Amino acid sequence: MERDVPPEVLRQREVKWLDMLSHWDKWMIKRFNKVRLRCQKGIPPALRGRAWLYLSGGKVKREQNQGKFQELDSQPGDPKWLDVIEKDLHRQFPFHEMFVSRGGHGQQDLFRVLKAYTLYKPDEGYCQAQAPIAAVLLMHMPAEDAFWGLVQICEKYLPGYYSPGLEAIQLDGEILFALLRRVSPVAFRHLEKHKIDPILYMTEWFMCAFSRTLPWASVLRVWDMFLCDGVKIIFRVGLVLLKCTLGTREKLKNCQGLYETMELLRAIDPRYMQEGFLVREVRAEDTEVPPQCKITRDNFITSGGR
Amino acid sequence: QMGGQNLRKEHLYKVLVIGDLGVGKTSIIRRYVHQTFSSNYRATIGVDFALKVLNWDSETVRLQLWDIAGQERFGNMTRVYYREAMGAFIVFDVTRPTTFEAVIKWKEDLDSKVMLANGQRIATVLLANKCDQGRELSNNGIKMDQFCKDHGFVGWFETSAKDNLNISDAANFLVKHIMATENDILKSVVPDTISPQMDSSRQMSCSGCFK
């Protein structure tokens, strides 16, 4: 993972990150651009868990709610959700050593975090796409921290994505498609012509924050940026992948149909997902996700969807 | 002779695989398409796809299998997933009665959101999966036949993705029904849209052409 970074550079980065983490508020208020730049360069693996917890605001949330996780953890939970969660425990990153054994620590912690969330937000309950998010967090931090990280992602980063109606994800699908018109007119026209609804290809991308799509090194780099800058990173990654895969007439020659296009998007050329390439492209892709997105989304939800 | 292969008739069918979460939809598809089984398939988020190519007499059938997330909240997206489907499998898990109870709900969802060009419901086969895990349905065969009749299924099969039981039989059965309905549509469309009078006048002008 991230083999390209020479040891001495990594050492320097660790020193810088340790300094940032010990004066976090000051850095976030006064030198956020520097924090962002360092997230774009990649957070040193040894400090990633802590950095994610700080960036997401999970740390503050945990401190504001001392004892809350333990309280939720000790409750039995609604059997309706427990049943579904239990079915998913062995289906998250099944080849990762942490989650490989049934009833092992990884799966147990995953159960605790997801169950705690259903008690924390009983109206929302459990959505299957939350499991990979929680699993990625658990690979980097203990259960309580992962819980607050999950809370922040569900409430602040991707609000409404996991709620029963799934309206927010559908709306973001439409926004992604609208943005694509400017970023890659060729890809846009192709998807439009074949009536390929965004939810056919972007649901898993967005709901799982690309954790099940990209190679692992790229997942980590994307999350470094996502937890710093929010959902616009997810949009940009989506736009880059669409542009690279469907962006020229040449590329579209062999995919004359909905199904062929879907196949192409499900098996994206590894070149485009390689972390160095992807991060460069995402940084260059300065499409501004319209600030009204969130407002539109809130309106959308209160009006009860389409 | 050289052009023979190109002339081979091709059928392309979109087939949905739906049912509650954890009933084994992905496993059935993997078994059918890739001849493998694992108990560790990732939960499907949204939709997944697979293609199975069948040699059908002298014709080729390409089955696009749409593997649709089973969790209830993804039901808000099913309209998009179902579009232009020609057939469906509704799957339940024989070891979990609630998944059987949900079968009717899935069937209603399907019938309310997709239909064939002639307004008919799409051919749907019921799969009683995980039959390797004990519960025999065979004694209930008559009940199941009646259930299928009552709810508009063309048939049902006990399947096991694990032991590779009945899956290709069920698929062949569905394909047969899809082909039959396809022929019905082709036959029915013409008389439905052209009135007998028009027809005869056309024939007149046609024979006129030949003269």
From TrEMBL, chain A:
Residues 42-230 form the Rab-GAP TBC domain. It comes from Xiphophorus couchianus (Monterrey platyfish). Transmembrane segments: none annotated. It comes from the Eukaryota. InterPro entries: Rab-GAP-TBC_dom, Rab-GAP_TBC_sf, Rab_GAP_TBC_domain. One of its GO terms (molecular function) is GTPase activator activity. This is TBC1 domain family member 10A. The keyword Transmembrane helix does not apply. Keywords: GTPase activation. One of its GO terms (cellular component) is plasma membrane.
UniProtKB/TrEMBL annotation, chain B:
GO terms for cellular component: late endosome; lysosome; membrane; phagocytic vesicle; trans-Golgi network. The keyword GTP-binding applies. It comes from the Eukaryota. It is a lipid-anchor. Its main location: membrane. It is found in: Endomembrane system; Membrane. Keywords: GTP-binding, Lipoprotein, Membrane, Nucleotide-binding, Prenylation. One of its GO terms (biological process) is endosome to lysosome transport. GO terms for molecular function: GTP binding; GTPase activity. The small GTPases Rab are key regulators in vesicle trafficking. Belongs to the small GTPase superfamily. Rab family. This is Ras-related protein Rab. It comes from Xiphophorus couchianus (Monterrey platyfish).
